[in-house]
Specification:
Largest sheet: 5 strands, mixed
Shape: elongated
Structural class: alpha/beta
Helix content: 40-55%
Number of helices: 15
Order of helices and strands: HHEHEEHEEEEHHHHHHHHHHH
Strand content: 5-15%
Number of domains: 2
Radius of gyration: 21 Å
Length: 295
């Protein structure tokens, strides 16, 4: 998996496993059904991204890998995991490699790996599925909350990112997702867009993201509380509190849970402008400490 973005991807998959299972099953011929994560030691020993089971008419397992680097040799890695996983789960295992950006499109990702014997004739043929996100349908990815953030990485979205993000926002409203789920999804989207877009495009997306979160019921609750308490600067206080939450949300998507004392440090910053600068640096900072060093 893309190590810089694995936290956002893990959260996205863990919270919307059924969406991902349906999406992947449809692309690799696995009958749809209830999905569950496979808890095996293989994930650690073979460094696989995501194995999970689908109990449809023909039960099967899907082994999901994410790619961003374009390095050669991925098919051999998929084969090793596929064989080892089948020995454990005793089900057909379908390996799917999801490429998140065009730079990941290595020349050996043909969908088939043939292992030659000593006589030069293939002694083993391994089939796997390659899904290039940028070639996928924007509408199809946008159809479910779990895959919606990937819609912003498609070629269709890249042609007009602002309009695509507006459709993303409207989709979340149409699905009537909870405030917490909406915040998590827009946070994942912002972080993942760093895989494809340049700093100017990401900055524009950040402004769109800020407006989305300011429309949330959480922000309004914070603002109204400040006003009800008769704070002379209730709006500024509300902005600071929401910006603190934004930093924690985006930082958590990018780096994982904050270390001890980090959340208190964020909550101790009262300047909304500085907090917004910190949030905007999420994609370029190296860790929580580097992020909070932003002035």
């Amino acid at each position: 998996m893309a190590k810089q973005f694995d936290s956002a991807l893990n959260i996205l998959i863990d919270e919307h496993l059924s969406d991902w299972a349906d999406f992947l099953a449809a692309h690799c011929g696995v009958p749809p059904g209830p999905a569950s994560a496979l808890d095996t030691d293989l994930s650690a020993t073979l460094q696989a991204d995501r194995p999970f089971r689908i109990d449809g008419d023909v039960p099967a397992a899907i082994h999901l890998e994410m790619g961003t680097s374009g390095r050669l040799g991925f098919p051999e890695r998929l084969l090793r995991y596929n064989v080892a996983a089948r020995a454990v789960v005793e089900l057909p295992v379908h390996s799917v490699l999801v490429l998140l950006r065009p730079e990941a499109n290595a020349s050996d990702l043909t969908g088939t790996l043939e292992v030659p014997g000593a006589d030069g004739v293939p002694c083993l043929t391994f089939r796997y599925r390659v899904l290039r996100v940028w070639e996928q349908s924007f509408a199809a990815l946008l159809a479910t909350p779990g895959t919606a953030p990937l819609a912003l990485l498609t070629n269709e979205a890249a042609a007009n990112l602002s309009a695509a993000f507006a459709q993303f926002r409207e989709r979340l409203k149409a699905d009537a997702v909870s405030s917490n789920v909406e915040r998590s999804l827009v946070g994942s989207t912002f972080v993942l867009c760093g895989l494809r877009y340049n700093s100017d495009q990401v900055e524009e997306l950040y402004r769109e993201l800020s407006m989305t979160l300011e429309d949330s019921s959480t922000y309004q609750l914070i603002l109204n509380r400040g006003l009800k308490q008769g704070e002379a600067r209730g709006e500024a206080r509300g902005r600071a509190m929401e910006a603190q939450s934004l930093v924690l949300l985006l930082g958590g998507q990018r780096f994982g849970a904050p270390p001890t004392g980090t959340e208190d440090a964020v909550r101790g910053i009262a300047d909304p402008a500085r907090l917004e600068r910190i949030a905007a640096r999420v994609l370029t900072a190296t860790d929580w400490a580097d992020l909070l060093a932003t002035q």
